[in-house]
Specification:
single chain; 517 residues; 9 helices; 23 strands; globular
Length: 517
């Protein structure tokens, strides 16, 4: 069966919406599914490196290089030998002539023919370029950077989250690829696990809800079909955490019976196969450990949190979002942290969020569902004397700026940090009418809330100096335009040694549904 855009539009028109053509892919071969995806706007790098290249977890002398051999990106199992030898090269120039390291790595069917190469012996604070070669073909060239050591004057990084494929094109990632940043932090919801959603969308998921390793592999391949996502991966090294939709909505990593645990294992493996993640384990099949601390010179300490794998159910008096071991690890890091900006990569909102004054919490899947543990951790921040804490957060599909207090209900409780919750890349927010009505209500109900804007999509760029931490909210004009331009909506600052944020005077008149004057 040969598919073309006209046939897809015809089928969609008969049913009333373009995206309804996508469920037909359940009966398509991998090649036909790819053709359908491309007819609706997806594209891929030349085989076998269709899913692109990436780097991650940069350290002063090391970075992880990633690719995955997928000649047919929608095939559950690639028609390749059990093990394929992949050559890799790292150089000081984009032409790959000044080579500093090279080697070979096995890409096995066990891990979806992915490779994760931990390249060592590199120089600190240095740009490098890299590429892979396999089956007589060469990948695109990627760019990466190692972490600095010692005193540095500036760091810049981007944060992205929540990129539902059906909700729009990844113009935000196109913007990230073009930013002058040292690294990217992805805060979760890299994929979504549900099936087609229908309605007025420019593209949609290709199968029903995903459950198996084959399903999750295909879903990751679909998302990598956005050229801007592959471009952002190839442009900068990434740090990664996850939220719920990488597995299933609102899940607890410690709950559920055997079917759920099998689904979680499949999702975790597919995530690892498709990400530039440095795994700390030594087994053939990964159980990815997400939480880690990384330093960017003496300027910034990045703490990456995992708020899914070890959590209990919500709303328990003794509930945990971190798990006992991760909580002990975090508290030890708080007590022993260096004099630096302390940045927590946090997938879901830390700050309290009541829906109306004196009312209930809006969502207890976030830290509001784990009150005792949140108070314990934030009291520890206060009593330990930690300063200069900035929490960067995703999940909400809207932008918030909050003061962090150990007791959010007590306005005399000390401010111990600032939380910046970034816009989503594409995932749908509440309507403009809802935001207009409820922004002031949330402001009245949450005296620590300084700013709310929910009508836009994009990402944040954070600029860090020894004196100041600045959050630039980048927004796109239209999710339906893959080349949508990027502008800066507003900028907030945090001064070193002084808890709390303030909006830059130059952008203070920008549109928002709430700002505390």
């Amino acid at each position: 069966m040969k598919l073309n855009r006209r046939d897809l539009l015809k089928a969609a028109g008969a049913a009333g919406a373009l995206n309804v053509a996508w469920p037909l892919s359940a009966g398509l071969s991998p090649a036909q599914a790819r053709e359908a995806a491309e007819a609706l706007g997806a594209d891929y790098d030349p085989a076998p490196f269709t899913l692109g290249v990436a780097s991650g977890d940069p350290q002063p002398s090391s970075v992880v290089l990633w690719t995955r051999l997928a000649p047919e990106p929608f095939a559950a199992v690639q028609q390749l030998p059990e093990v394929v030898e992949v050559e890799w090269v790292v150089a000081q120039d984009a032409a790959l002539t000044r080579v500093v390291a090279r080697g070979k790595a096995p890409a096995s069917a066990t891990l979806g023919h992915s490779v994760h190469v931990p390249v060592g012996g590199l120089s600190a604070n240095t740009r490098y370029w890299y590429a892979f070669k396999a089956l007589g073909k060469t990948s695109r060239v990627g760019r990466t950077k190692t972490a600095p050591v010692g005193s540095i004057a500036r760091a810049r990084f981007a944060a992205a989250n929540c990129q539902a494929f059906h909700d729009g094109y990844y113009a935000a990632h196109r913007g990230i690829a073009r930013e002058d940043v040292d690294f990217v932090v992805h805060l979760g919801d890299y994929i979504y696990e549900h099936g087609p959603v229908g309605g007025d969308h420019v593209r949609d998921h290709d199968t029903p809800a995903i459950l198996t390793l084959a399903d999750y592999r295909r879903r990751h391949a679909l998302y990598k079909g956005d050229a801007s996502l592959r471009e952002a991966h190839a442009a900068h090294p990434w740090f990664l955490t996850w939220d719920d939709h990488e597995v299933v909505n609102d899940y607890s990593g410690t709950g559920g019976g055997a079917p759920f645990m099998q689904r979680r294992a499949a999702a975790y493996q597919a995530w690892y196969e498709n990400m530039p993640h440095r795994d700390s384990g030594s087994s053939a099949l990964p159980d990815p450990e997400i939480h880690r601390v990384r330093r960017w010179g003496d300027l910034l300490e990045l703490t990456v949190l995992d708020l899914r794998s070890y959590r209990s159910a919500q709303n328990l008096s003794n509930g945990t979002i971190l798990g006992a071991e991760q909580k002990a690890w975090l508290k030890q890091g708080i007590a022993q942290g260096p004099e630096a900006w302390h940045v927590w990569a946090n997938s879901i909102m830390l700050s309290q969020l009541r829906g109306r004054p004196g009312g209930s919490y809006m969502f207890t899947d976030q830290w509001d569902g784990f009150l005792a543990e949140r108070k314990e951790v934030l009291n520890h921040v206060h009593t330990s004397g930690m300063e200069d804490l900035v929490v960067v957060t995703g999940d909400w599909h809207s932008a918030f700026v909050d003061d962090i207090r150990p007791d959010f209900d007590n306005t005399s409780s000390p401010v111990v940090g600032t939380e910046f919750t970034a816009h989503s890349v594409t995932s749908g927010a509440y309507s403009a009418d809802w935001n207009k009505t409820n922004g002031p209500v949330m402001g009245a109900a949450n005296p620590h809330l300084k700013y709310f804007e929910g009508n836009r999509y994009g990402y944040d760029v954070y600029e860090v100096t020894p004196q100041r931490f600045s959050a630039h909210m980048r927004v796109i004009a239209d999710r339906r335009d893959p080349a949508s331009p990027v502008t800066t909506l507003t900028t907030f600052h945090v001064d070193r040694g002084k808890a709390g944020s303030y909006e830059d005077p130059a952008t203070k008149n920008s549109p928002a549904q709430y700002r505390r004057d």
